[in-house]
Sequence to fold (377 residues):
Amino acid sequence: MTAGRLILAVVLALLPFQAGHAHKPSDSYLALSVEGGRIVGQWDIAVRDLEVAIGLDADGDGEITWGELKAKHADIAAYALARLGLEADSRPCLLTPTGHLVDNHSDGAYAVLRFDAECGRVPEVLQIRYNLFFDFDTQHKGLLRLQAREQTQATAFSADRPAQRFDLRTASPLMQFLSFGREGVWHIWIGIDHILFIISLLLPAVLSFAYGRLRPARHFAPAFWDTFKVVTAFTVAHSITLSLAALGVVSLPSRLVESAIAASVALAAANNLWPVVRRGRWLVAFLFGLVHGFGFASVLTDLGLPQGALLLALVGFNLGVELGQLVIVSAFLPLAYYLRGTWLYQRLVMTGGSVVVVIVALIWFVERVWDLRILTR
Fold:
């Protein structure tokens, strides 16, 4: 029991610091097209990340104008290209900037860097080294779309996987599928708002309401089936909107989606303190799961994959999300059931934990609605 107390205390203590990952994770979008011995590249990098890395706001007024961005074009190109390495069959390619633009993605403005890579030969194997922002943001991802020989490959670079090798002779759909599956797992594991929403709905699953108060569930089976209904409803719902958004059928503003996700976390936790919905938590999971699906889809929609590659990436990413979610639930439910009758669970975790989640989620909501930085860097 001492170990259980220590683990739960650490988790609760870390909640405010984990909040920094509650927003849409930092991503950049790298598109490479192999044209003979030359590679044409376009790199979309979030202006907010560049501001942290090299400073763009010259007058310090909190707004980055086109003039301020234009004045930093050379710095942006130097900073970014120094953190990208391309090798064709183990021979380095020379990277040269060719143009600058600005584009809007679902989460804000992006600086668009266009460049050429002269490799001197038609590559059969392309090695890519990606190290953008990893020195100050280990959660950053570089999302790659690589076109070569009329085939498209897509993958994600991360701090623990900054270098990857691509065989352009035999592009493997399986490798793309596994890559996005891994990205889906990681996305749910670092998506603290998604995790807290699910956990908040599952906390009462091992308890039953009788004689005007919550009591420990007498058997595991009812707790299991309650959990099964909540998780299944959430899965079905976010799979629907993830698919619709990634395929471009439905689109919602990123700030609206992220604000609604924060509100869903606060409401799910508040329901544990002042129960309004007791038996229909699966319906709550479904309704808010529709919103969470748009949050999951932001990575795939901004990547701009061709239709065939998008479908493969969509399936892999979605299955990865489900696998990551299953791991979390499988770890949570047995422990919650074991501790359900203790003061530790009923007071510290159920009540105290729900209070903390409500407070953190409301701060997220304020941050996202008014574009403020309270818990985030």
Summary: The mean pLDDT is 87. Residues 27-171 form one domain.
